[in-house]
Predict the structure of FGGY carbohydrate kinase domain-containing protein.
Amino acid sequence: MAFTSSASLYLGIDVGTGSARAGIFDEHGKLLKSASSPLQIWKEGNCIEQSSTDIWLAVCAATRAACQLANVSGEDIASVGFAATCSLVAVGEDDSPVTVSWSGDARRNVIVWMDHRAVEQAERINSYNSPVLQYAGGALSPEMQPPKLLWVKENLNESWAVAFRWMDLSDWLTYRATGDDTRSLCTTVCKWTYLGHAHMQQMNTKNTKAMDACGWDDVFWQEVGLGDLVEGHYAKIGKSVAFPGHPLGAGLTGTAAQELGLCEGTPVGAALIDAHAGGIGVIESVPSSNIKSQEEEKMEALCHRMVLVCGTSTCHMAVAQNKVFIPGVWGPFWSAMVPELWLTEGGQSATGALLDHLVENHVVAPLLANRAASQNISLYELLNRTLESMAREIQAPFVASLSKDVHVLPDFHGNRSPVADPSAKGMISGLTLDSSEKQLAVLYLSTVQSIAYGTRHIVEHCNAHGLKIDTLLACGGLSKNSLYIQEHADIIGFPVILPRERESVLLGAAILGAVSAKKYSTLQDAMKALNAPGQVFYPAQDPKVKKYHDAKYRIFRALYEQQVSFRSLISDALG
């Protein structure tokens, strides 16, 4: 099949933790059809691994299935855009997988984003207090790439010796698709300590180009023990970078096109991390009454919004016209999401994953799952209905008050923001011997609220350090849960806007492709054309709801303080 520039559909591909998804969008940003394919994952303690071979096969399967469901051929696809988790991929000189696993299994060449094997390496890197760390919230997380690279070097000598390329997963996907090893400013700036603002003078969105990487800090890599990556002008980790949406290579290679069922030469844009693609896919999704008229005012309005990308974890994305340094919050990252704006990124490492963990491991979960399936609803919708029934039954003043005796600290996978404590643990106060359905419903409600209190903590912290957030936009799987979104609106006190198109990460990926195909002159133009608002959740008007959540929020903050105190007492006792 030959690519034709008259094609008008945009393909977005998103590789998440559990599946690869593909979605086909029309020129109005409306999703026609989507499909997914599951991914294999290996979990052994803190080590969580995947296979790039398995991932590519899943991408191809999802793409072909989406085209078939939409009844379109490869000739109808105008462009391709990729988004993925910020997992780390290792390949050899011939592009074959290089193991990152203790097992030695060559298939396992991807360290998954949520892998925490490199906690000690992260602590050691942070102890050097490199100037680059001020652009990462003051400290690197073990989820970022330098600690993981150092772990491999110190523990898997053979893999370190033969690895020819170390790539963020979304960059590997565009490389696999096009043969172009240009890295995205999003991945390199957000996860690799690349200083994107080194390119501020080169910014020209009307004629972007791949740029020689001038934002690496030689001293940082050498002092942390990874100086060998400086060789060859950082060839192994990125000697060329580009703004998201920049057209890569000559588009799809013949091999990739055949595997995907698309046309050789179909334009492919430089990628984004999945959460950042969600930001691109939703941040302009505001009602027309909220849109300012002047261009400068529009840019300022953008800086009052925070996007919550709610899935396995939650990312909190906000942009600013000037760089703002916020302790415990990643960034500021220049042009890592919206070109020319500084991105700050808060996060909670386990949100959807935490709800699944607490609900699915409860003794009554199998019974409730069967009941939900018989009613053709999700387990969480069943729990939402149970809570409403309980509130009516006991004449509770409002559903949220059912959690009055149960308090949760949701740091079951550490605290990413704003205290940046990877050793933080989850806490639950108020447990009894009750293991009924109602008890699970209350625990679920309390956990949802705790996640929202965590977001409130992030928003308050960001605003205290110079941001001006007053509106939230939400996307991702958890945004489909009405209770989850309403609790966030009530607890934070801001309206939460959902986009018309609920698959915002797929849309964000598709937007990158549309820009690469020159369908729009800038990423901002594409966002404005393809984003659209949907339902808006407003904070409850009842002052008692606010008073209740203010009290529970104080308890939420106290739980972490108590944990730190307990940690100190035990440390002294064992000292």
